[in-house]
Every structure is written in C-alpha cells, then in structure tokens.
Amino acid sequence: MKIVLDTNIFVSAYLHNGNPRKVYHRVVNGLDELYITDDILMELHKVLLRKKFDIGINEVEDFVNIIESYSIKVICQNEPENISRDIDDNKILQCGVEGNVDYIITGDKDLLVLDNYKNIRIVNSSEYLNILL
Description:
By secondary structure, the protein is of the alpha/beta class. Helix content is 48%, strand content 15%.
C-alpha cells in the first residue's frame, strides 16, 4: 500500500509499542510505501524536540533520517487546499494527493472526520491494520 503517516503516528511509533509502531514497521519491512514531504519531516523534528518528550537532538535527527531513508519524497507542486479544520493538517492531505496514495494514517480527529479525501481513505492505525487482515 502507498501511505502517508501523520506526525502523531510517527511520535507514537517512536515512544510506544502499539499499532502506530506496527504500521511504522510495515514500512521498514518493505510492506508499505511511505510518502513524505520536507514539511512533514520538519514538523516531526520540531515536535519530538519538545521538552515533554525529553529526547536528545541526536536521537531525533537519527529517527528523522531513518524515516527519510525509507520514504518516497513528494515535492508538492501546488499550495495545499484549505480542507481540514486544522490548517496544519492540510500538508498531510496534499502529500497524499500529490503522492497518489491509498491511505492517510492518523490519530488526529480533524483528519479522521473527513474519512475520505479525493479517493484516499483516512484511518487510524488500528483501522489500517484491520483492513490488511
């Protein structure tokens, strides 16, 4: 499958065992193709460096570099449409559209409420794993 992971999925995959980490491991094991943009990578870097996570800069940079090495970079040609209730989420939708992906996987209610956008299913990590069964 061709997928986009929202920043919250990456953070959960890094910090916890659970469905987000299972989805992330599907990418690492070559079962899914991960599409990403520089904007998503920058947001992930910024989020993981928040004090509440207490993660050093070297660990954050290593994780972001690993993600980038397993990803297909999308260079967005268009400005993001203003679709989501949270304007910051529009870059996730744009990556999905321009990457022509099958799924956007997120834990964000502002994206999940859309359910489907331009033939891209928007699901949480649990739903995604259940679809694959």
